[in-house]
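Obj: model holo form, ligand = flavin mononucleotide.
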Amino acid sequence: MSFRTALCDLLGIEYPIVQSGMGAIAGPELVAEVCRAGGLGILAGLNVAPDDLRTMIRRVRELTDRPFGVNLWLHRDLRPPIDPAGIPEATLRGAQEMLNRFRGRLGIPTTTSRPVRGPDLVDATVQAVLEERPPVFSSALGWLDHGLSEECHRRGIKVMAMVSSVADARTAAAEGADVIVAQGGEAGGHRSIDGKPATAEATTVGTIALLPQVVDAVRLPVVAAGGIADGRGLVAALALGASGVLLGTRFVATRESMAPELYKKRVLESESDATTVTDVLSGLWARALANRFTREYAEAGAPVLPPLVQRSAANDVYIAALKQGDAEHYPMMAGQSVGLIRDLPGAGEVVQAIIREARAVLQALPERVRQS
Ligand SMILES: Cc1cc2nc3c(=O)[nH]c(=O)nc-3n(C[C@H](O)[C@H](O)[C@H](O)COP(=O)(O)O)c2cc1C
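Output (holo structure tokens):
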């Protein structure tokens, strides 16, 4: 059985397995390894300066001649980044006092000052992607508008949009996406929403409910994301109408992933109830491994700074935690599939194992159905 789907035909890949373009984790080596194994690797463009992204794209091309993608966040609060000057004094003080607790514990200087405004990179990185013409432009937390989708198509670039609701799937499709990624609530990382709902609850429709609804809503190949880490997940997603699967957490724990060792170790040790959906890490809702940082922040009820300003305010804490090997104060995005992940293989082996397992699942299925 080949597992060739419409997604494979559209993108020119062998297997319908996509590796997420995870910020600070998916570099050229990871991407090329997945592509060489027959899947689609996606390069992370988040917070990467345009010229660095060009270098990374060229490096992928040196390592493989297979199709690959480049991922960017298109969130409105990055275009341009929110100006911290507008944050009310009391909010700023409350958030910094909370962060100062962690700073004190890590032995780094405390501060009450305003974080600096993040660099305005999105338009220039979009331009770099258009000029470099990777086979796939993948977007998260927002989608390409009609004009940009057309420009991609003129340049031979396929457009992939990750969404977490049926309404957003319809809109992204109408704006010209070629592939929709349906991100269920189990997924690790940020909820793919262009905005910030008031509560985490509104962001967590599970994959098994969301996926068939998205499949019914759009006439495009749909890729399932969230909670999938092995061949059983691939078969289940195909049964629900998906044309492929996108995995994040599984690829964090691979040899080529750029995640630091303390993070990979936590992924390997954690059960599926170890995650939480929180806004304290970046200011946007994201599923991550719970630790002292996420728990104590939530328990204190301290104010959270606006989207992505929270991330830059806490960055000194994260850097110190990493230097000190302290996973309790380091942000570790991960999904509920974390409880399925117990080894640290090469990324190509992950692709091969999923296909092998999926074949075995399908072979065993008729027998299991008869027995039950
Ligand atoms: C560590 C981590 C970082 C992520 N960063 C990004 C990103 O930069 N861009 C993106 O499109 N998705 C990102 N995601 C989300 C994935 O695209 C995807 O929705 C999710 O990983 C799928 O669920 P899973 O983690 O259960 O496989 C990230 C996920 C993780 C775990």
